[in-house]
Amino acid sequence: MSTLLLMAPAAAHTxxxxxxxxxxxxxxxxxxxxxxxxxxxxxxxxxxxxxxxxTRIHSRNLLETIRQTSRDGGGLLDHGDTYxxxxxxxxxxxxxxxxxxxxxxxxxxxYHNGLAVVRPPGHxxxxxxxxxxxxxxxxxxAARQAQVAHGAERVLIVDYxxxxxxxxxxxxxxxxxxxxxxxxxVAPFFYPGTGQFNEMGTGAGYGYTFNIPLPPHVxxxxxxxxxxxxxxxxxxxxxxxxxxxxxxxxxxxRDPLASAALSLTGYARLGQLMVDLAQSVxxxxxxxxxxxxxxxxxxxxxxxxxxxxxxxxxxLADPLGPFPQSETSIEAxxxxxxxxxxxxxxxx
Length: 348
Ligand SMILES: [Zn+2]
Prior knowledge:
The chain contains eleven helices and ten strands. It has 348 residues and is α/β, with parallel strands linked by helices. Helix 4 runs parallel beside helix 5 and helix 8 (264-281) packs parallel to helix 9 (296-311).
């Protein structure tokens, strides 16, 4: 089994004091080195996305807004907290281009699977709207690359960042060839406020957006059941040619921005489940793309464990242990989720 690792940590896309900064990834390389994992993976370098790769998923207007803001030396891109520096446009091109290159490598069979550790993150970037610390939607660029450059008919995107994949949903909302499954926390005042169960897609894409909104404090047990009983069987019936995972580590119980309850052990199980799924439906072709995760110890251990999983090694590092309280029950939710057309239609 060969695994690629792409790192584009975007040191110059940083705003002091902002939770989404280079500080998240600064110590990652030495950390991985210390665990002797870098010798076992194929390190590949990112290349900038072409304009064509970006316009497959974003409006020219949106791209121009980011480019101009960078040209002007940087600034805010939305009314919230999404910033660009003078280097951000180029770094966003690099993150998206790196993900496309990783897809190329896996689709050509040079690597079995892979992990793209990129910044800025992407899953809140919609076709023509920027938000949530995201500039260019890396995972969406990767999905289109699999289709356009390699003829993949169906691509599955699974997003278990704690925030709703509103940008990814927006880009593929009317598209039946790219299914988007997102598990996320939905709570009062919690960003971005979308991702309700009844947002299911439109037109030909109806039924191919599968939102799984979770109450606070769902952890290893709840996520485990949702992925085993709902996500996996539905995804198997979809028969994707390629699987992309938007992996955010902010659903960990220690994350400062959210209130989900996964542990590092729970995360490792989800990673294994996705790798097994890829093995059963698409010859193991899977790429994990980093989104959020704002507690550095969680983030680094989570990425290390993911590499162990991709390499097929039975190691697991969980220095933080399980959620110290009891989890919220999801029994009623499981029942509800079985009514979703993505779960039902595909099973007929
Ligand atoms: Zn997030």
